[in-house]
Design brief:
749 residues, 21 strands, 31 helices, six-stranded parallel β-sheet, alpha/beta, seven-stranded parallel β-sheet, 47% helix, single chain, globular
């Protein structure tokens, strides 16, 4: 077997041949071209990323490893980064201390294996004498192998156009985007060598085909939906859905002729927002198809995995199963296996025309540092990013989130659509500095008036006995509480009568699915059903009760719960708002502050008497003012983790560590919910005893029986450790009504 003079990759189980450096470099550049990048800094980084592999130490290492001999590791990423840094020192202003150009040029190369680092760590790595000397040795070898020389690279190693290299947010996102391009091109090229059979399977349905499928697919879906629905939408509901859809199509076509990239879609609950937002995106894609910057894909992000499942199912029915990638951590093994192979592969790269994911995945990828997660980021370039239920974005991260959305729209051609029935006017809060946001559905106020399907009532403070009496006096009712503790208190007061159910994140997904099916069946049959839930029920869930009770929380939460009442205008609905004696205002911070502001609003409105209270809660202008007051409240820290300061310091790893939408460290408890769960847990224990590790497929099989808890809650349960952050529990610790027995837990969901 011939070993090339400069080897890049050794043979593998499916590949008997070696790959040389020049071949790999050319494959990486070709992969970049397939991503639409044929010149500039990214191409230079592709040429330089494996410069260190030319060093004799690396060549000795790869040969010894392939022969099964002891081998001294020879890290290679820093050598190309040193060269990129040397070329970037010629940029104007590069010697100014706050100038970030040198690190921008070097960071993606330094990170393409180990991930992004903080500025001090990067500077240290790039200034190590041994590394600098090693880069010189590697460069001398590379030039003998046809590697582009300095005259060829210098025109490529230039600052990206219109980028302010003193602006931390701009350089932060550009660095991550360049790293994403490099990692994806490198991994794609490596796959061609090691797994050519998979590389050949990577294909995609093109976006123009998806556009062509949408109109007939939507009509067929709506007909099928109507045929099997127990609830029939009223004429007013159907009118609003049709008007919203038409407005979105018109706005999408018109947006192609403007530079506008930040949009809002305000639609009352039940107004067909999911398909309407996609209609906007695909109309925009169709109108921009012949332009210099066509739409690359549509990414829909929603806050809960249950809604992700729901939306993905709708879009697959409309657009075809081969066009829609559903990607989130809770996607179970069966549904993952049902996706076509090219989409299963695309979950690594997001190279699909339509992606349905969670808000956590979509937002956190903008601040990712690890290569595996970063690989997806550049797929957002040129995309339409639909962020549903934006009122649920964590308030303590609003400043860094909005800064990224603004930057993605301005310099990376991302069209952002902020969707909600309860829209916060983010652009009006000066601390967020979002810029102009254009409304897609200009007639939304009239739509809210048409879809007044509930009346709101303020009950003031209720004790448990009074609330119990109210709930037992209503055959079909939903009660939503701020915390799991309050929900369990109400459930215990209500008793375990027939038709009493509970939903919270203390129920495993298989249990929640079972509860939803039972509740839906009883609602459809007109049987008594009382559902006590935490906030998991209130946004985007397609369920319809005649009445609901909502413990005082932010105004938007009352309005979201109203969306689970008389959803299709099939009758009359009522939402009762109350304070629970001894109850919680919810988690400290933005949630509790919103609860207090809403309580003051309710008390003031209730004094007006008559229908004024209900009328006000239906008025979008009241909602608008509520959010303005909340966002402007000095007690609300919109950058609670000081992320923007870390961006200015170019601390890429620290930013990534802090830019997490879920605060606490989450531990997984596998619950013995049924016989299948017990078999899988036993099998997992045996495998861990033998091998000490579970595969991704193993964890996916266990996912329907997993409950996430916080680290500080470990001592409250008789848990049995399985592996690191993985536990199980005895059957006595899991209740068939309220799930994992953490009765005194203070959590919000």
């Amino acid at each position: 077997m011939t070993i090339p003079r400069y080897a890049a990759h050794s043979p593998g189980p499916l590949q008997p041949a070696w790959e040389d450096q020049r071949t790999h470099r050319e494959r990486v550049v070709a992969a970049l071209a397939r991503s639409g990048v044929t010149a500039g800094l990214s191409v230079a980084q592709a040429h330089l990323h494996d410069l260190g592999k030319y060093h004799p130490a690396f060549q000795a290492y790869i040969r010894a490893s392939a022969a099964g001999l002891p081998a001294t590791r020879a890290p290679h990423a820093a050598h190309g980064a040193v060269m990129a840094q040397a070329l970037a020192w010629h940029w104007p202003g590069s010697r100014v201390p706050e100038h970030l150009g040198v690190l921008l040029a070097a960071a993606p190369i330094l990170a393409h294996h180990a991930g992004l680092k903080d500025a001090a760590d990067m500077r240290k790595a790039l200034s190590e004498p041994a590394t600098v000397q090693g880069a010189r040795v590697a460069w001398a070898e590379a030039i003998t192998d046809g590697h582009p020389d300095v005259p060829a690279l210098a025109p490529l190693v230039q600052p990206p156009v219109h980028l302010d290299l003193l602006d931390g947010t701009q350089v932060d996102l550009m660095t991550r985007m360049l790293t994403s391009l490099l990692v994806d091109a490198d991994w794609t090229a490596t796959e061609v060598h090691y797994r050519p059979h998979l590389a050949a399977q990577r294909r995609r349905v093109e976006l123009p085909d998806v556009v062509a499928r949408f109109a007939p697919g939507r009509l067929a879906f709506l007909r099928a939906q109507q045929a099997r629905k127990v609830r029939t939408a009223s004429a007013a509901v159907q009118q609003v859905r049709d008007e919203v859809h038409h407005a979105c199509e018109e706005a999408g076509a018109a947006a192609a002729r403007t530079p506008q990239r930040l949009f809002r879609l305000t639609v009352p609950t039940g107004g067909g927002k999911t398909l309407a937002s996609v209609a906007f995106a695909l109309a925009l894609a169709q109108a921009r198809a012949g332009m210099a910057a066509p739409v690359s894909r549509v990414v829909m992000a929603v806050p809960l995995t249950s809604i992700t499942d729901q939306n993905a199912e709708v879009l697959r029915a409309v657009l075809g199963a081969d066009a829609v990638l559903e990607h989130h951590s809770a996607l179970d093994l069966q549904r993952r296996a049902e996706q076509p192979l090219h989409l299963r592969l695309a979950s690594e790269t997001w190279d699909a025309p339509v992606i349905v994911t969670t808000t956590v995945q979509a937002i956190e990828v903008l601040g990712a540092a690890e290569p595996g997660r970063l690989r997806r980021l550049h797929r957002l370039r040129g995309s339409v990013l639909i962020l549903d239920e934006v009122q649920g974005l964590p308030t303590h991260l609003l400043t860094p989130i909005m800064a990224l959305l603004r930057e993605a729209s301005q310099r990376h051609d991302v069209t952002v659509v902020l969707c909600s029935a309860t829209q916060p006017p983010f652009e009006l809060e000066r601390r967020l500095d979002l810029g102009d946001v254009q409304e897609i559905n200009a007639d939304y106020e009239r739509h809210f008036a048409l879809l007044r399907r509930v009346t709101y009532h303020w009950l003031g403070e209720l004790n448990l006995d009074a609330l119990r009496t109210q709930l037992l006096g209503t055959p079909q009712v939903l009660a939503v509480l701020n915390t799991r503790r309050d929900a369990v208190r109400v459930l215990q007061a209500l008793g375990t009568g027939e038709g009493h159910y509970h939903l919270s994140t203390l129920l495993c997904p298989a249990h929640r699915q079972q509860v939803r099916a039972a509740v839906d069946a009883r609602l459809a049959a007109g049987q008594p059903v009382r559902l006590v839930s935490t906030t998991v029920i209130e946004a985007g869930v397609d369920i319809s009760f005649p009445q609901a009770y909502r413990q005082t929380a932010g105004l938007e939460r009352a309005q979201q719960v109203a969306g689970r009442v008389n959803r299709d205008g099939e009758g009359s609905g009522a939402v009762f708002l109350f304070d629970l004696t001894g109850g919680s205002d919810g988690p400290p911070g933005g949630y509790a502050l919103a609860t207090r502001q809403a309580r003051e609003l309710y008390q003031d409105l209730a004094q007006q008497g008559g229908a004024a209270f209900s009328d006000a809660l239906h008025d979008p202008q009241v909602t608008h003012q509520y959010f303005r007051n909340l966002l402007a409240d000095p007690a609300l820290d919109l950058d609670g983790r000081d992320i923007q300061a870390q961006r200015r310091a170019f601390n890429l790893r620290t930013v990534s560590d802090r830019f997490r939408l879920i605060d606490d460290v989450q531990l997984t408890v596998l619950v013995p919910f049924d016989a299948r769960a017990r078999r899988l847990i036993a099998a997992a224990r045996r495998k861990l005893d033998r091998r000490g590790v579970l595969t991704g497929a193993d964890r996916q099989r266990l996912q329907p029986y997993a409950v996430q808890i916080r680290e500080r809650d470990l001592s409250r349960l008789p848990l049995i450790p399985l592996h690191e952050d993985l536990f199980t529990c005895p059957p006595s610790a899991y209740d068939p009504l309220w799930g994992l027995r953490l009765h005194d837990l203070q959590g919000a969901s």
